[in-house]
Write a structure and sequence with these properties.
This protein is α/β, with parallel strands linked by helices and 330 residues long. It is built from 16 helices and 10 strands. The strands form 2 sheets. The protein has a 5-stranded mixed β-sheet with strand order 2-1-3-10-4, sandwiched between helices. The protein has a 5-stranded mixed β-sheet with strand order 7-6-8-5-9, sandwiched between helices. It is found in: Periplasm.
């Protein structure tokens, strides 16, 4: 009879423990808005597909918002917790007097991701060959166009005086415009650049990524208030990303292509491998999530050269390296 109270107590303790254990297995949902769907963002898809976010207890819901303006609007309005977009957008928002500025906390890519495409093969291409040509560029104020202009100027080509520069075509329509006969040269992302080469519509003759140096081309960012209120979750998010970045560095382009293929089902695996290898070989994928001051200053130089830097913003104003640094030091 004396054992009965003990059994009751054990049952009571179990009732308390099991719900707590169940709660500990729940995931935190983080909504991420990516500016476009691109092989350029391979480490992000590796983190998702390899379960690195899930291992941290995070349920990352990814949506593509197609364009810097739309992505930033989605983030600011609360339609996403985190945005993957060019770091220049955080400067644009800050310069407009944002009371809750957008903070860069983890870098994904560290070079330009575009390539120069010509209609014909040019084995002896020199940048001055562009002078007098019609150049199909990117959107004014966007990172691809600013980085492209920066490279051209470094090579002695004035994009607004030496070229017939076309910037009036929507981003999604640029490849079709070139394929239809508009322009002598075009600036394109992958996999479109490689597809054009494979189909004989154009030929890759130079990489803007190799020429522009390191800069925070795309980074994960969130509103300052969100980072402050979700410190532990953001640390988990960054840890998962760092795992993916390390995995990408340690594995072949073929292995990476196989992992991220579900996100690019319409792209042949062989082509996917080619694109990954091209980005990997030129160091486009950031090897860690830290956005350092040198890269930030290079970004401002690129923006300033294009006449698009609204104001000088210090690195520590819009960049949080504390989270990434702690993750790497673990």
């Amino acid at each position: 009879m004396k054992k009965r109270p003990i059994l009751v107590m054990v049952a009571f303790v179990c009732m308390l423990i099991f719900p707590l254990a169940a709660c500990s297995n729940t995931s935190t949902t983080i909504q991420v808005a990516e500016v476009t769907r691109s092989i350029f963002y391979a480490p992000q898809y590796v983190a998702l597909e390899k379960g690195f976010f899930a291992d941290e207890g995070l349920d990352v819901e990814l949506k593509t918002t197609w364009g810097g303006d739309k992505t930033m609007t989605t983030l600011i309005s609360g339609g996403a917790d985190v945005a993957l977009v060019g770091s220049e957008t955080s400067i644009y928002v800050y310069s407009q007097g944002a009371t809750d500025p957008v903070i860069n906390f983890a870098q994904l890519t560290q070079t330009d991701g575009t390539f120069l495409i010509a209609r014909e093969r040019k084995p002896n291409f020199k940048w001055e060959d562009l002078k007098g040509s019609t150049f199909l560029g990117q959107r004014k104020g966007g990172m691809p166009q600013m980085s492209g202009e920066y490279v051209l100027k470094q090579k002695g080509v004035d994009p607004h005086n030496d070229l017939d520069l076309i910037q009036s075509i929507e981003f999604a329509n640029i490849p079709n415009a070139f394929a239809s006969g508009t322009g002598d040269y075009v600036q394109l992302f992958e996999p479109t650049a490689s597809i054009f080469e494979k189909e004989g519509k154009g030929h890759i003759i130079a990489s803007f990524g190799e020429e522009s140096g390191h800069l925070p081309y795309t980074s994960f960012m969130a509103k300052e208030s969100y980072l402050e209120e979700n410190k532990e979750d953001m640390k988990k998010f960054t840890r998962a990303l760092y795992k993916a970045q390390t995995w990408v560095q340690e594995h072949s382009a073929k292995e990476i292509a196989e992992v991220i293929h579900p996100y690019f089902e319409d792209t042949e695996l062989e082509l996917l491998e080619t694109v990954v290898e091209r980005y990997k070989s030129q160091g486009s994928f950031a090897t860690d999530p830290i956005l350092d001051e040198e890269e930030w200053n290079n970004l401002k130089n690129v923006m300033d050269a294009a006449g698009e830097l609204p104001k000088d913003v210090n690195h520590n104003t819009l960049v949080n390296t504390e989270i990434a640094t702690k993750v790497i030091q673990e």
